Amino acid sequence: GRGAMDTGDIPAIKSLVVLDSDGKRIVAKYYKNEFANLAEEHAFEKKLSEKTVRTNAKNEAEIIMFDNMVTVYRNSADVWFFVVGHQAENELILVSALSALVDALTAALRTTPDKRSLMDNFDTLLLAIDELVDGGMILETDPTTIVNRVSMKGSDGAPTGAEAAFTEQSFNTMFASAREQLARSLLK
């Protein structure tokens, strides 16, 4: 290791990767220069995909350990979200970062993230990752805060439709209506 100068107590991640169901990269951010080149990154991503593609991680995060790393991941439609940390990192922190990203994207896109919605709203995806992690440091794990910042930044340039008008109010309304639907379906 590089000693105490590195990160101190700020939770840090090595990489954040989003892959499609074929293990192809949608976006990948490597914060620790773990790999020498793109080929090594792709090999790692292939391994991530092979180890997880048959598992069911739709509703909550799953954890796998290999190569001295802890990886938490979630599946949404045809995409897989991975947050990779050092094996000594607290996986609950990694899980909270992962959940914040998936929840923020779900809210900002107003739909379950899938490959098409992420590709169509690639700027939103990148902004959400930037609000979540800076240089490997986890900055924010509250999805509402991330969404609000993304929508503010999105509206600096040309407003990108829905997310430019996005407010905390609509976030709360959306969750309330989802909760009502759930309650109704349980009462049937």
From TrEMBL:
Keywords linked to the UniProt accession: Cytoplasm, Cytoplasmic vesicle, ER-Golgi transport, Golgi apparatus, Membrane, Protein transport, Transport
One Pfam family named in its UniProt record: Clat_adaptor_s
Domain AP complex mu/sigma subunit: 13-154
Gene Ontology CC annotation, any one: COPI vesicle coat
Principal subcellular localisation of the protein: cytoplasm
Compartments where located: Cytoplasm; Golgi apparatus membrane; Cytoplasmic vesicle, COPI-coated vesicle membrane
Keyword check for Cell inner membrane: no
Keyword Protein transport applies: yes
Annotated membrane topology: Peripheral membrane protein
SUPFAM superfamilies: SNARE-like (SSF64356)
Database matches in CDD domains: Zeta-COP
InterPro entries assigned: AP_mu_sigma_su (IPR022775), Coatomer_zeta (IPR039652), Longin-like_dom_sf (IPR011012)
GO biological process: intra-Golgi vesicle-mediated transport; intracellular protein transport; retrograde vesicle-mediated transport, Golgi to endoplasmic reticulum
Family that this chain belongs to: Belongs to the adaptor complexes small subunit family.
PANTHER family: COATOMER SUBUNIT ZETA, ZETA-COAT PROTEIN
Function noted in UniProt: The coatomer is a cytosolic protein complex that binds to dilysine motifs and reversibly associates with Golgi non-clathrin-coated vesicles, which further mediate biosynthetic protein transport from the ER, via the Golgi up to the trans Golgi network. Coatomer complex is required for budding from Golgi membranes, and is essential for the retrograde Golgi-to-ER transport of dilysine-tagged proteins. The zeta subunit may be involved in regulating the coat assembly and, hence, the rate of biosynthetic protein transport due to its association-dissociation properties with the coatomer complex.
Subunit structure: Oligomeric complex that consists of at least the alpha, beta, beta', gamma, delta, epsilon and zeta subunits.
The name this protein goes by in its record: Coatomer subunit zeta
Annotated organism of origin: Strombidinopsis acuminata
Native organism taxonomy: Eukaryota, Sar, Alveolata, Ciliophora, Intramacronucleata
